[in-house]
Amino acid sequence: MLNGSLINSKLPQVGTTIFTIMSKLASEHNAINLSQGFPDYSCSQELVELIHKKMLAGNNQYAPMQGLLSLREAISKKMGLVYEKKYDAETEITITAGATQAIFTAISTIVSPGDEVIIFEPAYDCYAPAIELFGGKVVPVTLQFPNYTINWQEVASLINTKTRAIIINNPNNPSSSVFTKKDLLQLENIVRNTDIVIISDEVYEHLIFDGAEHQSIANFKGLAERSFVVFSFGKTYHATGWKIGYCIAPKELMNEFRKIHQFNVFCVNNPIQQALAEYVEKAEEYLSLPNFFQEKRDFFVDKLIGSRFTIYPSRGTYFQLLGYEKISNENDVVFAERLIKEFKIASIPLSVFYNKKEDNKVLRFCFAKKNETLLRAAEILKSI
Ligand code: PMP
Ligand code: GLN
Question: How far is residue 174's CA from residue 126's CA, in Å, rounded to a whole number?
Answer without folding.
Answer: 12
